[in-house]
Design brief:
single chain, 6 helices
């Protein structure tokens, strides 16, 4: 998964905080750089509670450093649904599988707003 997609999924609430440091390290190895990325990658190996405590403060900086705009959770979900729809149209994913993922995202968003 590319870094921009991972950040968008975090914004949407679909990623665990414990995954952030590894993705930040991968971003650094792909040529992205910035203080937030370096600090987040430096959390590798720490307990998930420590990561969960520090990562939210770094996420806005990480998003900017990899070129992802700030989004609300709903806006990020919308981006993910549009991306999945494009994958269906291009034939990158079977229509049934793509529709199922979109449906699960819809259900998750509905549960979040109730």
């Amino acid at each position: 998964m590319d870094v921009q997609t991972a950040v968008t999924e975090w914004q949407a609430g679909l990623k665990e905080w414990s995954e952030l440091p590894d993705v930040a390290a991968a971003a650094l190895s792909e040529g992205f750089d910035g203080p937030s990325l370096r600090n987040l990658a430096g959390l590798i190996g720490l307990p998930w509670t420590e990561i969960q405590w520090q990562a939210p403060d770094l996420l806005a900086g990480v998003a900017a450093e990899v070129g992802v705009p700030q989004r609300t959770q709903g806006e990020a979900l919308e981006v993910i649904v549009h991306t999945e729809a494009k994958r269906i149209v291009r034939g990158d994913v079977a229509p049934e599988a793509g529709a199922e993922r979109i449906y699960r995202l819809f259900l998750r968003d509905t549960e979040r707003t109730e």
